[in-house]
Model the fold of this input.
Amino acid sequence: MTEAKKTNPGLKAVHSQVLQDVMGRVDAAFTAMKQRGHGLPRLKKFGQFKSFLFPQIDNDVIVENQIKLPKLGYVTINLHRPIPNGFKLKTARIIRKASGWYVAIAVQMDVSIPGSIPRGHALGIDVGVEYFLSTSDGEQVKRPRFFNQLHRKLELLQRRLKNKQKGSANRRKLNQKIAKVHEQISECRRDFHFQLAHQICDNAGLIFVEDLDFRIMAKGMLGKHTLDAGLGQFVNQILPWVCWKRDVYYGKVDPNGTSQECPDCGAAVKKDLSVRVHHCPECGSTKPRDIASGQVIQNRGLSAVGLIVDQIACGRDLSGALPRQDRVKQEALRSDLEKPALYA
Ligand SMILES: [Zn+2]
Done:
């Protein structure tokens, strides 16, 4: 960095710790390429850098509606919520979005929070394309419709782009509009994910999901849809976060063959992707394919946390998993009762 500053005097205008953090990011990108097989890090063009970090800020940088940042001085902000008492300010990340500039402040307090104990009603969740998710209780949630409307709007704007001259003011304005729609889509999606995660946590003490690699799924045939629905973001980030906040146990199970197994008797029931109904020739159980998968995930999760369904005849209150004969009754309920989907 010292060498680079000699040849690029512009670098001196930037706070030194911000530059150090950028070098850290470059280093992390190359390490990820070597160790985890990520792609070659690309050089960022002007305007592509979306955020930068002040890795160390003082506790008194925020005064009323202003934040004091090194080299930038006082900047007026819209403080969305007060800094909670007893927390130390650690870092400030400046983020550029289509709708404006944001600063995200990380705060820290040294307390240990115990992890959630497995108890209550257990829920297995299967995520997919036809339905956004299906639960072992028989609820199925569709992908919300507003995505399609926003995507149409996006396509419309993107078609206009080819009529605009490169580098022109009109093209820049149109690109700004497109960026705003992208931001709107990701915010709608995030909002939908959070509401859904909270609704799931309302009725569960334990939640199990498949340990899937969504990056591999996205490369396959289902590509566009899986990425668009943001399944990975929901399953790996938002759901565990909401579970943690709501004191709900969150666990991942082996994803192999969850759709090829009967949740009621454990028999292997082969079916390809076009078969949408699970029908077991061994025990006669019949239900939608994704709900059957959700129930297999539930069973696997329960045995993973040591609450094996068949062995806990007296453990109903403890675990929420039902002993065998009650389970059969519940099966009957599951098939009789058509529950309304959370988001129709
Ligand atoms: Zn069966």
